[in-house]
Design brief:
By secondary structure, the protein is mainly beta. It has helices spanning 2-16, 289-294, 380-385, 402-406; strands spanning 22-27, 32-34, 37-39, 43-44, 64-66, 75-79, 82-86, 98-102, 111-112, 128-129, 134-139, 142-143, 150-151, 156-161, 166-172, 189-194, 200-206, 211-216, 221-225, 258-263, 273-278, 283-288, 305-309, 316-322, 325-330, 335-340, 350-355, 363-369, 372-377, 395-401. The strands form 9 sheets. Strands 1-30-29-28 form a 4-stranded antiparallel β-sheet. Strands 6-7-8-9 form a 4-stranded antiparallel β-sheet, with no helix packed on it. The longest helix is centred in the first third of the chain and has 15 residues, at 2-16. The structure holds 2-acetamido-2-deoxy-beta-D-glucopyranose.
């Protein structure tokens, strides 16, 4: 009996778990449901699918419609009981780049959004829902297959109304928003800033050619901003993931610049602070959104604040804001960092609130939803430098309560 109780206690402790995050979905490999037709293993090009977008011509791999191993989720978003999952086209054999599933699904099989027949997007990274029930994203228009990069169509901002499931905007970015042919592949993150549903701005980071694109919905216009703070820090190159102890681990020297923008709540004059950082950096910067909205000449010189440094191994991708606390997807430590923005940004005030050498290996996207932090984990360095083991769980969506994560830390 005593033994039973201790096993029970052990299990309870495991369930509450060390890092405050619990698994919502896990995948060994990605499968799709196309109107009841299941794609759970490699399939040749399927002529029964009413296919508005397919890349048969580009496919060297004998007309493969679905190459399961190549499907790596990178971005996500949560809206009610719907979870969107994106699979950017960085390899052949990806049948749908924007997908969804329901929180109640017992098997996390992806379905194309809005439906099979309306697949017109080439490649989407990290979509975001705004306060007006709209889903925003950048379609990079790029087939990013190594050695065979092909710009299928110009990059565009695409917005869906989530009630009607209709596409309500496709805004093609202007040539002046882009630096060169590398730029579209860098447009992997969008932040939406709603004053009203018609007076809405979007900020798109460009991690490839170090810029920020601002879009005004009201004016249907966009412009590009450059600043030195968008550039990676050479001194923060070369980090590892998975705790440096897996056989496949190697030094990551990706040169990603400006990655993520997180917005504070509004002040009394409706202004917000935009917090931002390059991925290859341990620093954090901020700027007032009023400056971004008015800087059509592209120069924000003297308006950027360097907030401080988070400390060693704090390289981070996505970040998001919850009542004065920022949460960071900390790729270099397989964890989540927090920082209370009311305190000076110093390494002592930046706290590793979750860490897991398996389930948090490369948090590719992080979102605050209500009072919860949600993350999508994809081990992409392992995919790029070694191989995933299809018999193990490779991809996860996890969530944790803000209060649980920051309890008794300097972020509380
Ligand atoms: C990163 O690695 C490269 C190649 O090994 C090296 O030249 C560079 O000095 C390293 N940078 C840092 C900050 O460690």
């Amino acid at each position: 009996m005593k033994r039973f109780i201790s096993i029970l206690l052990f299990c309870l402790i495991l369930k509450v778990n060390s890092h405050g995050m619990s698994v919502v979905f896990s995948w060994k490999q990605i499968s799709y449901n196309f109107d009841g037709v299941l794609y759970t293993k490699n399939s040749d090009y399927d002529r029964t699918v009413n296919d508005n977008i397919h890349f048969e011509d580009e496919l060297q791999e004998a007309g493969k419609f679905f190459i399961q191993y190549n499907n790596v989720p990178i971005g996500f978003e949560v809206y009610g009981d719907t979870v969107f999952v994106t699979v950017p086209r960085r390899r052949h054999g990806i049948p749908s780049t924007l997908n969804y599933l329901k929180l109640s699904d017992s098997c996390p099989i992806l379905r194309p959004y809005p439906d099979v027949a309306s697949r017109t997007l080439v490649s989407v990274y990290r979509p975001r829902v705004d306060e007006c029930g709209r889903l925003w994203m950048v379609d990079t228009g790029l087939l990013e297959v190594p050695g065979e990069r092909k710009q299928i169509q110009p990059p565009a901002i695409v917005v869906y109304d989530l009630n009607s499931k209709r596409q309500i905007l496709r805004y093609q970015l202007k040539p002046t928003d882009l630096v060169d042919e590398r730029t579209p592949g860098g447009l992997t993150f969008i932040t939406v800033d709603v004053t009203s549903c018609s007076d809405t701005y979007a900020y798109i980071t460009d991690l490839a050619t170090n810029g920020l694109i601002v879009f005004s919905l009201k004016e249907r216009d966009s412009w590009r901003i450059q600043d030195d703070s968008f550039r990676l820090d050479e001194g923060a190159l070369n980090f590892t993931v998975a705790g440096n102890c897996s056989p496949w681990t190697r030094v990551i020297n990706w040169r990603d610049g400006l990655f993520s923008i997180a917005l504070s709540n509004r002040d009394t004059t409706n202004r917000r602070t935009a917090f931002f950082h390059p991925l290859v950096s341990t620093q954090e910067f901020s700027i007032n959104t009023a400056v971004l909205k008015s800087s059509r000449q592209g120069n924000i010189n003297g308006q950027v604040r360097l907030l401080g440094t988070r400390g060693p191994l704090t390289q981070s991708g996505s970040h998001d804001y919850h009542n004065g606390v920022l949460f960071f997807a900390n790729v270099a430590q397989d964890g989540i960092l927090c920082w209370n923005t009311r305190k000076p940004m110093t390494p002592e005030n930046v706290v590793l609130v979750a860490q897991d050498r398996e389930k948090l290996v490369y948090i590719s996207d992080l979102k605050v939803k209500g009072d919860e932090v949600w993350v999508l984990v994809n081990q992409i360095p392992r995919f790029v430098y070694a191989t995933l083991d299809p018999r193990e769980n490779n991809f996860y969506i996890l969530k944790g309560r803000v209060q649980d994560l920051i309890k008794n830390t300097k972020c509380a």
